[in-house]
């Protein structure tokens, strides 16, 4: 796989009053263009189920936990996110979905592009032909 997902450790400032983690442009492998978050996911539901031609993402479990399943067209890998200082970088041209959301889970997605519906690859068979 040429585009390999990577777990990132974000800065963590520990304090007896509570910990603090932050993200700045220099912490990520791309410039931040957009943020969005996913929450109130009903039990058993999946989010995602697509790939991007250009967009790269960093996904963080701000609260609770969930799995990110990434497919390169041949192999599938699962990443369990459950710490707000641990992020998953998902490069472009990888199929992804999120599942197994815990109660009150919040997923923060940091994107390298502004929203563009034309950047989505929503059909898995089409994705496989592009990825190979």
From TrEMBL:
- Protein name, per record: Sugar 3,4-ketoisomerase QdtA cupin domain-containing protein
**InterPro entries in alphabetical order:** QdtA_cupin_dom, RmlC-like_jellyroll, RmlC_Cupin_sf
CDD domains to which the protein is assigned, alphabetical: cupin_QdtA-like
Coiled-coil regions listed = none
Q: Which organism is it from?
A: Longibacter salinarum
Q: Where is the Sugar 3,4-ketoisomerase QdtA cupin domain?
A: 7-130
Instruction: Please name the taxonomic classification of the source.
Output: Bacteria, Pseudomonadati, Rhodothermota, Rhodothermia, Rhodothermales
Name the source's superkingdom: Bacteria
